[in-house]
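ok new one. same drill as before - structure tokens go in, u give me an amino acid for every spot. 130 of them this time. try not to just spam alanines like last time pls lmao
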């Protein structure tokens, strides 16, 4: 009797595992973002004090977005009341630059707003300062 119960449980478990394992094929996820923003800092990694943030901004096809107004705001996520913002300077080829002074290390949130013609895009980017 025990053997019969054990075999029944084993068969049931096998069927259950087979059903769970045979899912639909995986779908590839593609980004639907209209704008891609890559931020690098000088110095890298970013340190407390004066830092230059360099942003490369492209459209969804990888083409540079030139001549945009790019506003960059930075807020310390661990301490309220620490923030700054300003316009980045167009460096041509979809590259923009802004100088910032980070008075504290830790986690910061960069909010980048890109405006050009009908484009009005905003993205929050996590940024760490050592």
């Amino acid at each position: 009797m025990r053997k019969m119960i054990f075999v029944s449980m084993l068969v049931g478990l096998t069927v259950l595992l087979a059903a769970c394992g045979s899912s639909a094929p995986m779908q590839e996820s593609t980004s639907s973002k209209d704008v891609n923003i890559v931020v690098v800092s000088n110095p890298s990694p970013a340190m407390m004090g004066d830092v230059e943030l360099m942003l490369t901004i492209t459209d969804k096809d990888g083409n540079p977005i030139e001549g945009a107004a790019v506003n960059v705001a930075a807020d310390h996520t661990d301490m309220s009341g620490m923030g700054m913002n300003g316009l980045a300077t167009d460096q041509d080829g979809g590259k923009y630059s802004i100088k910032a002074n980070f008075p504290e290390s830790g986690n910061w949130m960069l909010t980048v707003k890109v405006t050009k013609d009908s484009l009005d895009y905003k993205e929050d980017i996590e940024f760490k300062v050592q």
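The beta strands are 35-42, 49-59, 69-76, 83-87, 89-90, 95-102, 106-116, 119-129. and btw The first strand starts at residue 35 and ends at 42.
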